[in-house]
Amino acid sequence: xxxxxSAQEAEKQRVENxxxxxxxxxxQRRAEEKRQSELTQESKKxxxxxxxxxxxxxxxxxxxxxxLSKNQQKVGGYQPADKPSFFRRLFSRKSKSDGFFIxxxx
Length: 106
Fold this sequence. Notes:
Layout: H1 2-75, H2 82-91
């Protein structure tokens, strides 16, 4: 009976130790998984940040291009505002001479 009691105690202790070990392993696994998920969250966040910054850069570039093309329209060549006066000058009543039209003698 004495050996039985000590054997039972040893068995109980062994079971207890195993339970504690499993608990510990579970806790470690959980901690590791949490750490991993935090890492992936972090990387997702940084990815999102990077994408946002790229979008901002692209939109800034588009704005610059837009303003540049507007400025070029103002500076070079064809000005729509000029057109009517140009035609008016060219095809106005040809009585007044601006050097291009030689009035006929009446």
